[in-house]
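Appendix B, example 12.
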Amino acid sequence: MPTDEFRDAFFAHMNELGIKAGKVKLDEIVRVMVLQMNDFMVPYESVRRRLEETDIMQKEAADYLSSKQEEALEFVAIFIKDSNTYLGNGTCVKTVSGIRTLIEYAESKENVDNYLLMKIKKEFDIADMPIAEEGFEIHIGENSDEKERSIS
């Protein structure tokens, strides 16, 4: 995985998902990692190691991810299933690109038909996400210089 392309893709995915510098939850960083896995067609552990090698993530954060590997892999399986990519071994899965994000957005609104959301989740076989309560800090430099960007 070339360093510049890996870094560019990582920060583009963070921006696309609206993840800002500061405290993030495990599921948020894993969502970005799954996108990286898909971009480079590599397993989770390769992306986790590369985050540290490219100075995107500090050693402490990489060690934290390593210690939470079982939970992270649960999220990986869910996101792969939702994304309908070759990471999920084929494209025969019924899905709509970004459906989980759309459903999460709809659930945050007041006038939503919960029955309809449950029916959509069942129809598309969308698993409920375990709640990630623990978070950790991400610090991305204020400068536009990519070397200043890092995750702690």
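The two ends are 21 Å apart (CA to CA). The first strand starts at residue 22 and ends at 25.
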